[in-house]
Amino acid sequence: MKKMSDFSEVDKQRYANIWDMLESHFDEKSRRLLASAMSLSLGYGGNKVIRSITNLNPDTIKLGIEQLTSQEQLDDNRIRRTGGGRKTIASLYPNLEHDLLRLLEANTQGDPESPLLWTSKSLENLKYALEDFGYSVSIPVISSILAENEYSMQANKKRFEGTTTDNRDSQFEYINEIVKKAIKIHNPVISVDSKKKENVGNYKNGGKEYHKSGEPIEVNAYDFVDKKLGKVTPYGVYDITENSGWVNVGCDHDTAEFSVFSIQQWWSKLGKTLYPNANELIITADGGGSNSSVSRLWKFKLQELSNTIGLSITVCHFPPGTSKWNKIEHRMFSAISMNWRGRPLTSHEIVIKLISNTTNKSGLKIYAELDDKKYEKGIKITDEQIGSLNIEYHNINKKLNYTIKPISTTT
Asked: How far apart are CA 150 and CA 152, in angstroms?
């Protein structure tokens, strides 16, 4: 190789400019060959100059020169020599993936010896747990392995409302059978439940609606209950056949007496007109709350209602943990929540109007009325009162299905 001739600062700057313009457009192999070609063009001593311009390792430029002069062959599809570059995590730790997944599975199964049993299963804690096993790996590597094995960050999911029962399937089938028979002979079938209590006043309501940019509705910073307006409990009655509903908006306690009065209001306002020839009312309800399957007051008040309207009342409760299958939840309450999203419930009148104006694509129609009656909590029903009920428990899932028939007062 010829010796490098005089190389001025102007020449050096020219080479530096070429390198700066092209470096970001080349991969590792192309940069190595460019630097090596520049070194060869300068002759002996050019290696030192090019190193100062490119900041490349001397061995890198030496390899490039060998490749340009055919002293070192490199496959066109490769950037480095075979075996070159940093070792992969898989080659460094062949058991890493297996041990990481075992770590998670042991914790999931409740292994008392699992290092993660009493800590959050975050990437950082996984990293620390792996260090105890002798692994030195980064958080991105752990994240990549978990993603490849279909793991992801998961929040808790609300699902279970109580202990599930063995009769779940049979109860669903039985409810379906009872409802279909009633609809066929044009007896009313209603789905009932209480919607969650709502603060009345200028409070934030979940959801969004359109407003002029930068002009959101301003509400109270804190949700302290307004002593004058208080809270309301909407108790809903959804007519499955008619796709219509009644909401009794209570201002007091959510009791069994309140629930049955709400059903009575639906019957007197809507039901008796829609079903003039009915001989039985079918009610589907969840198993807890004010219409609980074990509530004595609920059954006692239903007996009074049956006597008043002259109809047998059959109640079918959903098993524990399955109340979301009650049709009122997804056919009526969800529509109400959508209609008043982002709208502060500033008065009782606003609550009634928002509920009454709720509809959907299926033609849902809802009627609502304010109930300002007081309902006493803790009313006790004696064994004697329970014994006076004209109630018949069904052969299938007796605790969940029963019929209350009117008691005649005539002699």
From this structure: 7
d(CA 40, CA 15): 13
d(CA 132, CA 115): 9
Cross-strand partners of 239: 190, 244
Cβ atoms of residues 239 and 188 within 8 Å: yes
Residues 6+ apart with CB under 8 A from 206: 341, 342
* pTM score: 0.60
| Phi/psi at 199 (5° precision) | -70, 135
Q: Which range, 47-56, 127-136, 392-401, is most confident?
A: 392-401
Contact of 152 with 172, CB cutoff 8 Å: no
- Cα dist from 303 to 206, 309, 311, 312, whole Å: 39, 10, 10, 9
Tokens of 354: 């928002």
Residue 165, both tokens:
């029962």
Whether 304 shows a pLDDT value over 90: the answer reads yes
Q: Extract the tokens encoding 190.
A: 């209603």
For 404, the token pair is 């209350």
- Cβ distance 195 to 243 under 8 Å? no
Q: Cα Rg for the chain, rounded, in angstroms?
A: 38
Q: Which residues face 325 on adjacent strands? A: none
Grouping H, G, I as helix, E, B as strand and the rest as coil, residue 63 is helix
Question: Is 352 in a helix, a strand, or coil?
Answer: helix
Give the tens place of pLDDT for each residue, 108-122.
544 445 555 445 667
| Contact yes or no for 35/61 (Cβ under 8 A) | yes
Q: Enumerate helices (H) and strands (E) in the chain, giving the number of each.
A: 16, 9
222 vs 296, which has greater pLDDT?
296
Task: State pLDDT tens for residues 204-251.
Answer: 666 655 555 666 666 555 566 667 788 899 999 999 999 999 999 999
Residue 150: other Cβ atoms inside 10 A: 6
Backbone angles phi, psi at 255, to 5 degrees: -115, 170
The two structure tokens encoding residue 70: 């055919």
11-15, 345-349, 356-360, 362-366: range with lowest mean pLDDT? 11-15
Q: Would you tell me how many other CB atoms lie within 10 Å of the CB of residue 233?
A: 23
Give the pLDDT score at 83: 46
Contact 297, 136 (CB under 8 A): no
Instruction: Provide the 10 A C-beta neighbour count for residue 164.
Output: 12
